[in-house]
Amino acid sequence: MSATLALAVWHDHLWQALAVMALGGLGSGFTFSSLAVLMVPHVPAAETGSAMAFNQVLRYLGFTTGSAVSVALMAAYGGGETGFQAALFTIAGIWVVAIVGAIALDRRPPDGRAGERARHTARESSRLSLSPWIRSVPRLLRATVRRSRRV
User: Fold this and answer.
1) Rounded to the nearest 10 degrees, what angle do helices 14-39 and 2-9 cross at?
2) Helices (H) and strands (E) in the chain, counts
3) CB–CB of 37/52 below 8 Å?
4) For the chain, is the Cβ count within 10 Å smaller at the N or the C terminus?
């Protein structure tokens, strides 16, 4: 979010845009590389590969949706520098709402028993209705590859 706000304010010179993009790239790199470490303890061992693949699918879905929404917002705000800034401020506002929602929905126990909660969550996650679908993703991908080889 800080890179988005910085780009909305400082974009008059090429070095400013490059510095802000470097800040955003570092933030994205650290975030996406840490997600795997945060996800694995909360997923049963047999479903780790499927969960990582599902994470990748959601990441790329977010990239494409985010790009489309950014362009649509810029067009809705009239384009040019004003549309660019308004779109970036709107996206930053959406992120603030998402951060507040994530904090409000945080389900960690207040007594600090995070490890016990992670084990409990991993046991419960195998009972979720989405779980069978996630387990079937590798099988579906293998079947798709086999069909494409026949063609």
Assistant:
1) 170
2) 6, 0
3) no
4) C
